[in-house]
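Methods, example record. To illustrate the input and output format used throughout this study, we show the complete record for Signal peptidase. The sequence lines were provided to the predictor; the line carrying structure tokens was produced by it.
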Amino acid sequence: MNKIYKQFLAGCVFSALSALSIAAENDPLVGKWKTVDDRTGYSRADVEIRKKADGTYEGVIVTTRNVPGTDKMVICSNCPGELKNKPFIGLPFIWDFKQDPKNPREYQNGKVLDPIGGKIYKGKARLSTTGRHLTLRGYVGVSVIGRSVTWVKY
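The corresponding predicted structure is encoded as:
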């Protein structure tokens, strides 16, 4: 390849990566979130949410904490299938969430893993108007039968 072509190709790659970076910065769901356990009030983990190439969102655990008086859990011993006995760090915690085209602050049709109980639930989420709080709901069947937690963005 000639030098001009290589420079052009490098410029295209740089432009594409810059555009992806800017899009991620402007996406209020993308980033690091502190989870807060609704039962204890303690933060159990930090989750990083990313937008995948197919337009869905996925969150992986990047930090874990123990509730005072309990041991820190490091392995997902109750998780199903391929996730069983995987380390919590790097574990997919939420996935397949899609932004609602009618309401850009809502995300639907996702899956939520309860890493302590090992169950996978249907999920939906809603961003606050400020984009600093995310209310995540995991449920069985219909949304009425479920549990909601609120996360705080870093």
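Annotations derived from this record:
The longest helix spans residues 3-26.
Residues 28-153 form a domain with the Lipocalin fold (CATH 2.40.128.520).
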